[in-house]
Amino acid sequence: FPYTTLFRSLLCYLHFSFIFDKTYVQKNMKTKLIEKAKQISTEYKFGDFFRNFLAVILGIIITFAGSDWITEHNAQKEVKESILLVKSELQTNREDIAYIKELVELEQKGALYLLEYKGRIQEADPDSLQKYDRLPFQSISFNAMYDALEMLKASGLIPKIKNKELTVQILTAYAIVRNSQSAFDSYGNIKQRCLEELMKVPDVKKRMNSTNYIDWNFYFKYPEGVALIQQIPQIQSTDIYQNHLKAIDKVIAAIDEEYNQ
User: Fold this and answer.
1) What is the Cα–Cα distance from 196 to 51, expressed in whole angstroms?
2) CA 24, 27, 30, 31 torsion-angle sign
3) Residue 137, Cβ neighbours under 10 Å: how many?
4) What is the rounded CA–CA span in Å between residue 214 and residue 153?
5) Distances in Å between the alpha carbon of 164 and those of 77, 114, 167?
6) Which of 68, 112, 221, 248 has a CA positioned 20 to 30 A from the CA of residue 181?
7) Residues with Cβ < 8 Å from 143, sequence gap 6 or more?
8) Is the pTM of this model over 0.90?
9) What is the pLDDT of residues 136-177, one digit of tens each?
């Protein structure tokens, strides 16, 4: 009996000792968790959260801004390439205008020379006569180029040209090219009508079909022949082409300045 009582007492002690230790451990762990939470909340203040949040927002903004910059950079690169094609086309048109200007001047000079020796062509210098005698009969067309401008318009890049004044200058330059073409077409049409009147003369038509030899003593026998040569120097002044060339040169120079060529 005494041993039984002692054993039971020991069991009761161990039981209560375990309950006490378990409760103590739980309370101790709870206390440490609360203290840790307080420590974290103290160390990680609202300012830290705001700074991290702001960093994320700035990162998003920078990403989109960088994307916009790349898009704009590529667009301006395309604009430059298109404008340089326009410049090249304007230079080609300029060369053609300079050529037709020289051609009209030559024809007018030749017509005046032939008129000077009207009725005495045999006294004219043979080399000069060979140089001028066929000019009234030649027909040359001027076909200006507009492909680069049309490509620029179709690409939708015109609104992206930053220098709006340059945009106006380019469009004006092409209008000038059209005016040069129109002026030369008008010159050629008037000369052609005079030539057609001469060709209506039966003897002239017959001669033109039978020989390539040009005899202005023969053509000057007919009023139509005289009218043709008199008309050529009076159709237009070549100053119009010279003014157009100067205007186009200014636009080409403006393109060079804008794009550092």
Assistant:
1) 89
2) negative
3) 14
4) 49
5) 17, 51, 5
6) 112
7) 181
8) no
9) 998 888 999 999 999 999 998 899 999 999 999 999 999 999
